[in-house]
Amino acid sequence: MQALLSQLSALSLAELAGFALTIAAIWLAARNHWLTWPLQMAGGLLYMALFAQFQLFGEAALNGLYVLLAVYGLLQWRRGATQRALPISLMHWRDHAVLWGLGVLGTVLVAKLQLQFLPTDLPWLDSTVFVFGVLAQWLQARRKLENWPVWIGLDLLAAGIYWHKQLHITAALYVLLALLAAYGWWDWRRRLLGGAHA
Predict the structure, then answer these.
(1) 66-123 pLDDT tens trace
(2) Model pTM?
(3) What string of DSSP letters covers 8-32?
(4) Is 89 helix (H, G, I), strand (E, B) or coil?
(5) DSSP calls for 32-82
(6) What are the pLDDT digits (tens) for 76-86?
(7) Cα gap 185→67, rounded to integer Å
(8) Domain regions of the chain by residue span
(9) Is residue 39 a contact partner of residue 24, using CB atoms and an 8 Å limit?
(10) Where do the TM regions start and end (predicted)?
């Protein structure tokens, strides 16, 4: 408990802002609201700067990809007044095969690159979070229902990684994100089955 209180008191304003933006963005995504994307952009830019400051360049790059995918997601979700918004939909079995194939191949490639070029102690777990995080963000931008179970698994895996690294506040954030993803999965499924896509 003492370590948790010590870490909480050491949080910077940037970390607190990133925490708040992330929670708000995922809550809005779970509610199927397009304002998730501007908040994800802001949070991604903030975390890019924060991670670069601490020489966590892989995490900074991942957040840069999240920012780009958030721009794409915003464009997909808000196609303009004259076009119908992208509806919530399910993936086809071929999409699942591509997703898992790219995920496994990408994880192996990124892990091997980390092992060769970076001082890392969790290359396989870190690479899994990186690769499947990008894929989950893509699915969310495409309003695919299956983005949520991918996020649940990744958030719980990331929480374990951060707990192992003694980042207890960040681990708690990711457990909370997993709970929000579970809510998002339930709400999007309800909207899909009820025909409420907006």
Answers:
(1) 899 999 999 988 875 445 668 999 999 999 999 999 999 999 999 999 888 877 788 8
(2) 0.80
(3) HHH--HHHHHHHHHHHHHHHHHHTT
(4) strand
(5) T-TTHHHHHHHHHHHHHHHHHHTT-HHHHHHHHHHHHHHHHHHHHH---TT
(6) 888 754 456 68
(7) 22
(8) 12-194
(9) yes
(10) 46-75, 96-118, 169-186
